[in-house]
Amino acid sequence: MNLDWDGLISLIRSHDNFVLTSHIRPDCDALGSELGMAGILQAMGKKYTIVNGHQTPPILTFLDPSQSIKVISEHIRAEDVFGDCLIILDTSAWAQLGPMAEVLRRWTGTKIVIDHHVGEDDLGAQFFKDTNAEATGHLVALLAQHAGVEITKPMAMALYAAIATDTGWFRFASTTSDTYRIIGELVDCGASPSSIYGDLYERDTIGRVRLRGRILARVQSESNGELVHTFVRKEDFPESGALPSDTEDAVNLALAIEGTKVAFIMIEQMKGGFKISFRSRCHVDCNDLARQFGGGGHRAAAGAFVEAEFGELQNRVLQATRAALANKPVYA
User: Which CATH fold topology does 5-201 show?
Assistant: First the structure.
């Protein structure tokens, strides 16, 4: 992870008032990286505000007990977001910024991206990226070390959750010996694996369980079981009593089926359009797949958002995924 740490630290030291943001539908890596970065800025005597395009999912509010993370247009107007440095964490794409894209477009100060995703757009920012890193939270933890900042227990909890979830609780191929080294240091700083796991995976609601039942009931497989896919329609949420955030990691239900090499789930959003999540444990590059639909991510995990009719989009995604599995690229 050979980032220009001195350059990044110098940039931070040369500014006083920061705005931190991340991608829409924030997950643990987005939120944990923001909260870890906020801890670094606080230790360095800087002012900061965390503003996201979407609300923190209820199941992840334990990461931010003081409710310090603001939501654009709900807690703060776009025109009232100001500072001299904007730091974007865990995304490099315009589409992933959602309502915060407006803030970025009019920003006249310094813009910094700290990320681990492969693809990137021209955000007019200085990029500090390591696409080999398993999580942006790992990069933030290393930044704290290079800056000589003591990682507090709240920072350690947030960064542990970021890394643990982006590695599928250390079962994905992106997990390395460096992952375990930084995780050990976070535990030494106060992170509690048992309590974090409990907050993440042992607080299911009846609605979440019912929604997962629907997702599993719709699973279809083809290509001798190597391709598995399922979907969620927006009416499923009120009918099951689930929240849109309850679909987080639902694609892994399909990937867990024996023999599956590629899986995807299409999730209809309450305001329209579909979020598509791809997973792979073979030669298929999910980032390439997602890019065909305007998205991106990693080789083993990526996603996209598409405005389209369900049946037509499902056919396009199936065609692209079948072709990728057969090593025959097809551009949707």
Answer: inorganic pyrophosphatase (n-terminal core) (3.90.1640)
